[in-house]
Amino acid sequence: MAEFIPYGRQWIDEADIKAVESVLRSGYLTQGPRIEGFENSIKSAVGAKHCVVVSNATQALHIAVSALEIGEGSEGITTPITFVASANCLITNGLVPVFADIDAQTYNISPHEIEKGITPRTRVIIPVDFAGQAVDIDAIKEIAERHKLFIIEDAAHAIGSKYADGKAVGCCHKSDMTIFSFHPVKTITSGEGGAITTNNDVLYKRLLKLRTIGITKDEQELSKNPGPWYYEVQMLGGNNRMTDIQAALGSSQMSKLDSFKKRRREIVSMYNDAFSDKPNITVPYEKNGVDSCFHLYVLQLDFDKIGKSRKQVMEELRQKGIGTQVHYIPVNSQPYYVGKYGEYRPKEYPVTESYYRNCLSIPLFPMMSDEDVEYVEKTIISAIT
Ligand SMILES: Cc1ncc(COP(=O)(O)O)c(C=O)c1O
What we know:
globular; Aspartate Aminotransferase, domain 1; alpha/beta; seven-stranded mixed sheet; three-stranded antiparallel sheet; 2 domains; binds pyridoxal-5'-phosphate; Aspartate Aminotransferase, domain 2
């Protein structure tokens, strides 16, 4: 057996290394020209008016909620099948998270369930483009307009993906803001990193302040201007900045977004061919017209019928050099959430529960060779049949 195959990993080439090296040899390590360069490459790839890059997507979500200036005690609706950051950003801004069950085919938040979770206190919806597949943004926008709600789209998995109408995720034609993650397992990486896109000038100005402690030096924004040293703290913010080192890596990676997507989709198609007709396996469903950049390849495995537990299958695969993962444990079942908001009631989330019981993410990253893919297919089929 060759090297261990993790469920996801970055692909760094010589051009990336040279891009980072050139920053180290330049005068700026942070807040220099690479930041705007990276922002411009994201804006032009997704077709948004503004982009603000930040230290990671967890902080991108936090400041996106802060920028809405929603009153404490308001509610925000998100999905249980996500990384906890999609819900934590509500709590860190004094809001209450409300969870809506997922759709049985796409595993994305169900618009019908969003509607059921709306109360007079609801102010924002945070849908997640799970595994790279764009959410049903038209249906979510229709609900948001009817109830006067904001939409922050968590597209941490979905740079390079398209909605059914052919528009790029991140263009913000229906969302107020969209966030991306550049963690190494994501489609492109900046080491750690995140971005927010928006077409709204007011939100953009707030995001710029919130990235840097709530400070502005913009003459148009200052209440007075006694001299060149002067700045004002106009909002409460932390240090959420990205460095130029990260931005240079991110820009270099952006130039490979199309080729990374192509390879991801090739691997998905090989997997679909190998698994579709096998018993006790359901392959991911890609909704008609949606063009996913597939961050994850998530199988549904009927462990009861297979006669092995998920733990056994994961351990067996690990011993054979294959990494797998569970995306995700329902956020509202986490001890912190139960302690704060009360018991998690699985019966209220039947689709989430059945999804969670059977999900397993298997390796998917562009650096995988055809031999790696075939080895994963063969090993999984023998582990579960
Ligand atoms: C859906 C989702 N949102 C947000 C995040 C947070 O991203 P980051 O690791 O860049 O903080 C992640 C990270 O895995 C994620 O999967």
